[in-house]
Amino acid sequence: EMLVCSAIFSVAVAFRMWCSWGHPAYASGDPTGFYPAEAALQFRWATQVAQQGELPPVDHRAQWPEGLQFGIDITPFMEYVAGWLWRRGFRSTSSFFDFSIMFIASVSSLTVVLAYGAVRWLGGGVGGACVAAFLVAFHPWNLERVVRNFGRENFALFWVLLPLVVLMGCWSRSKQRKIEGRALTLLIVSTVAQGVAFSSWHMARPLFELHVGALLLPGLFGLYDKSQKRQFLAWYVAFAPLWVALPVLQSRAYALTPNVLALTIFALGLTLGTTPLRKLGLFAVVGIVWFVAKTLTPTTSDSHIFEVLQAKLVHVFAKPQD
Length: 322
Hints:
Elements (H helix, E strand, L loop, with lengths): L1 H20 L15 H16 L5 E2 L8 E2 L7 H14 L5 H13 L1 H12 L4 H13 L1 H5 L7 H20 L4 H5 L2 H18 L3 H17 L5 H12 L2 H6 L1 H4 L7 H12 L6 H21 L6 H12 L8
Antiparallel strand pairs: 1-2
């Protein structure tokens, strides 16, 4: 079974590399004009890490005059990983540009392994797991975001989704006995994965909030049993140290943002029961807290992210003609 998953992963990586190397904009060893816009900027930072071993604390050329602070304004974790790997193992065998194509093809294909593992972890058969992995590997939407895109989403998506797979596995009744002895390990895996996601991609923050909100809704309406509520609460609380430990979240007072405060109160409210009066009181408290927090922090550095998500929903994920 591992051979089947490894084969799909290998073919996905090879196909994505072939698509990039076969693109008209590709010229071996010459990155000029290959990566557009934001991807080019991120490739530039990764190249700096590859050549110099580190990034300056502030990049004034990226944003004049105040500059962008790495680790606070920008999350360059992917750039450091790519640059470090090239320096350690590929410096003598390929240019960093060619390595960047192999790197993106490989890390973006980790979601293929995750899709296969998720189906099996949740009780599905090998056939269903293969279909899921194949769709993730070769769906045009996935290929479009990989080719000519040194983008953080290609690196971060695996880490964004892994905590959800862990929680779904914990909820799978067929796996409960096996999970009881590995609960702490699974929590650590989930927390580390979410930490990598937060450190790699700014969109990990709104996606985390959307995922948690979607998971909370059924629980607030009494659709989870006590075990599921307990597992969800442990899963959610395990992320709290990240909010104060990671500089990119600490600088934004992420734990005190309106959405996170509301989600935290809702999560704690799962233990209050599901009587109409208690639910009404919980929603009233959340509404007041959210309004006060929003009033005290009317604008946030992440507001543009939600504007983009809103626009995508309005246009049904299709780019408008104008």
